[in-house]
Specification:
alpha+beta, BirA Bifunctional Protein, domain 2, two-stranded antiparallel sheet, 42% helix, elongated, binds 3,4-dihydroxyphenylalanine
Length: 337
Amino acid sequence: MSLLEQIDSVKQAALAELRSAQDLPSLERAKGGALGAEGSFTSLMKQLGSLAREERPAAGKAINAAKQELEAALQERRTELELKAALPKDPTDFSLPGRRRAPGRIHPLTQTTADIVRAFRRLGFAVADGPEIEDEYHCFDALNTPADHPARDSQDTFFLAGAAPGQRPLLRTHTSSVQIRVMEKQAPPIRIVVPGRVFRRDNADATHNPTFQQIEGLYVDRGVTVGDLKGTVTEVFQSLLGNEVKLRFRPHYFSYTEPSFEIDFTSPLVKKMGKEWLEIAGCGMVHPAVFERVGYDPEVWSGWAFGFGIERIAMIRYGINDIRLFYENDVRFLSQF
Ligand code: DAH
């Protein structure tokens, strides 16, 4: 057999062995058998030296080509075997059940918030957000509530240390601060709702908790009326809690609205809880001084705003009489929703 023929048959044998290796260790053994120091291919290369001068170039070329072919086959098989090694050992059982939703439910306050937001979105409102750590300006001054204003103590604020009076950081006492943040950034018209957490130093009892949730609304456009406010709020409450709900708007005072109202709510469920009316929100027509603070012309723009307490609404919705239940994380309570 000529050397060229030998090269070809050694190559074929080595290729077959590389390609049929079933795992990485046997591939390495096959590689050693062909290309290692004692390998079949290596010993062929050693014979090159004993060839006649004129035969060497052709034989050398054939050996190099064959070697490249072997290296390529080795690399290809290695990749295949590495992939195979990475796959799970046991075959996949497609009859197994799929991944289940984790046990547990959405918290009743989250469900209530989502439903209120959905009702407002249907009417064209967008959701806005703002910081829970606020400053006195956005929480009070810009809402027409100066430092000596009595409404300012009634809020009973958690102040954070670290700045001069008048600029103290605080935990926002209401989501109304976000009205200012949005109007500072955006030109009218505005139609937003702002769900969020607020903080007050109220003593905890069945209806008060130091932190609770509100949803703020703000609508600014030309020629907005109290009728728009009543219509919008009534529509949302009826879509949320049924057509038998009734709302009552009672005159009230807020420094950032004029006129201002409190909204009382009644439904068969409220009566079952032994009450005639429940107070659920403050609202009113945005005060011209607030518009001036954010650079809106009060002669051109008018608007209304409201702030609902989410816990109150959830209590009415589910017939719950103690607000603290929402925060105790007792699964016996939470699993009922
Ligand atoms: N910020 C008030 C509160 O926390 C609620 C409120 C009243 C919000 C009137 C408003 C409003 O936007 O216009 O009690």
